[in-house]
Amino acid sequence: MLIQNFFGPHSRGIAEEEIFEELLCGGRFRVERIISTGQTTPAGSWYDQESDEWVLLLSGAARLRFENEAGEVALKPGDFVNIPAHCRHRVEWTDPRQETVWLALHYTPQDIAEATSPSERV
Fold this sequence. Notes:
4% of the residues lie in helices and 41% in strands. It is mainly beta. β1 (19-25) and β2 form a beta hairpin. The longest helix has 5 residues, at 110-114.
């Protein structure tokens, strides 16, 4: 069995763009590590994803914006948010002085509806 460390080195070294690394993929889910070093969503662009996304900020700092909400949402380590499919959002800021590390779980909306007990819920 291969043991890895979530905070260990990433596959691309120092990068000018955000790093997205798929860690695990199943029938209706995908887990990824995202590493930001000051990157933001390009001006005028929005993420509009086909699946729901639960994202946890593990280190660093970030600010998100949701299309239908006023103002930005500041995230610090330990903060998480569930972003429904097609909820347009963008990354307004990530800390350029340190790595901002995210854990993201992408899943289909029916995963929660189909669960039969709280312990089975994503």
